């Protein structure tokens, strides 16, 4: 996994993506994957992410992922 991650980091740096932007997009994609894997169940997704369900709810809102 470290090699794959290093490739992604190198690509992002070469394209001029800033850390804040990269972290935000990574978090968004990570949340989407957890929601998909949990079948949309926010409580299960929050557990798999290691965050409280209210934290996940706020992040979903912040990322404008669901109504």
Q: Could you walk me through the main structural features you see in this protein, from its secondary elements to its overall organization?
A:
This protein is an all-alpha fold and 67 residues long. The protein has a single domain (2-62), classed as Arc Repressor Mutant, subunit A, CATH 1.10.10. The protein is built from 4 helices and no strands. α2 packs across α3 (42-49) and α3 (42-49) crosses α4 (53-62). The termini are far apart. The mean pLDDT is 95.
Give me the secondary-structure topology.
Elements: H1 2-15, H2 19-37, H3 42-49, H4 53-62
Helix pairs in contact: 2-3, 3-4
How much beta, percentage-wise? under 5%
Number of helices, where a helix is a run of at least 4 consecutive DSSP H or I residues? 4
Largest β sheet strand count, sense and barrel closure? none
Coarse shape:
elongated
Rounded to the nearest angstrom, the radius of gyration is 14 Å
List the uncertain runs: none
CATH topology: Arc Repressor Mutant, subunit A
DSSP strand count:
0
Tell me the name of the CATH class: Mainly Alpha
The number of distinct structural domains comes to: 1
Helix content: over 70%
- Helix-strand topology string: HHHH
Determine the N-to-C terminus distance: 33 Å
Helix-strand category? mainly alpha
User: Mind telling me which CATH architecture this is?
Assistant: Orthogonal Bundle
Average pLDDT: 95
């Amino acid at each position: 996994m470290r090699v794959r991650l290093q490739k992604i980091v190198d690509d992002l740096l070469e394209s001029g993506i800033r850390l804040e932007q990269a972290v935000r997009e990574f978090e968004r994609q990570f949340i989407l994957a957890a929601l998909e894997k949990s079948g949309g169940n926010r409580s299960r997704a929050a557990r798999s992410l290691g965050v409280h369900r209210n934290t996940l709810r706020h992040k979903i809102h912040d990322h404008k992922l669901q109504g």
